Amino acid sequence: MATVKTFKINDEDVSGREDETILQIARENDIFIPTLCNMEGLSSVGSCRLCLVEVKGWTKLATACVTKIQEGMEVYTDSERLREYRRMIVELLFSEGNHICAVCVSNGRCELQDMAQILGMNHLVVPYRRPNLKIDASHERFINDQNRCILCTRCVRVCDEIEGAHTWDVMGRGIEATVITDLNEPWGASQSCTTCGKCVQVCPTGALFEKGKSVAEMSKKREFLPYLTSMRGNGKAK
Ligand code: FES
Predict the structure, then answer these.
(1) Is the CB of 181 under 6 A from ligand 1?
(2) Domains of the chain by range and CATH?
(3) Which terminus of the chain, N or C, has less C-beta within 10 A?
(4) 49 lines ligand 1 (CB under 6 A)
(5) How far is the CA of 49 from the centre of ligand 1 (A)?
(6) Would the CB of 33 count as within 6 Å of ligand 1?
(7) pLDDT on residue 236
């Protein structure tokens, strides 16, 4: 049985099981921590770094989504330093891809766009990289526009952990990293894709979307995720 740990978030006493993360306890207590790669029902990978928090006595910032709680720790989720880092992370994501909201299928329903607004990002201090990445429209129902991908890997995880197909993966490192289907084959030629569309629904931006959607028309439906996760937890589904 997991031990209960008591600690503080923003000077308030909170508690949770030792196997829970700072992010989980913060959410249970209605304390907002921005996230992008994290999604309830999927494993946490700590890739976007947006959920950085300060812990008293720690020299480094901690990623709330993958840091387990500890007895007596003192966590701070909001400070000028954190706000600056988070804004910078979103700026870098915007500069790295081609996030032209005005012509994006997810305009108005994009988590990256939401984060920019929440964190007060209104311009970039770094130059746009303007990549010219491929757009894969070979699938009969979906499109993958790599230029809008922020490498959160939600598509990789939902396909592997929930659908069990593992069609998606990441190829390359650093600035060269990109999500691929199968062995970097066109999505439409994939032997493993079940066309379930879960990857499209969990994508936070307009990188993965349904064919036939125009500007601002792509809304994501994620209700299936908590349901399937709880079924899996009950041993009724894999
Ligand atoms: Fe924690 Fe992305 S939400 S690193």
Answers:
(1) no
(2) 4-31+45-78 (3.10.20.740), 84-222 (3.30.70.20)
(3) N
(4) yes
(5) 5
(6) no
(7) 40
